[in-house]
Amino acid sequence: MTAFRMVLISMFLALLGYTAVVTRQHGPGLVSAFIGNMQLVDWSGQFNLDVLLMLMLSALWLMWRHQFSGPGVMLGLAALSKGPLYQQENCGIGFCRIGLPKQSDNASVTLELNDAAVPLG
To answer: Of these four, 24, 65, 108, 119, which has the most CB atoms within 10 Å of its CB?
Structure first.
């Protein structure tokens, strides 16, 4: 578990550093660059469209899973706007799954790694 946490922290720090450099060099215009690449109809735009559609699918799945309740809709919108930080199923490559309790559940949040559940709190 410690090694997995170190990998996650390393990935987050790499992304944070990369984002800082890009923001310093190109400014904070992420949305215009994201949409602009899609308007060019090239591979960069194809990748952006793919990511956007996967985020939308993730958001809709989260909302549906929580029966379109208020918290479920908010979680879905967070998944759409914040992406993988809030993605609930499969963390992109099938390693982990975070199970959030539904409103009727009294269970705590768990993180499952290769079928071994670890309580998060």
So the answer is: 65
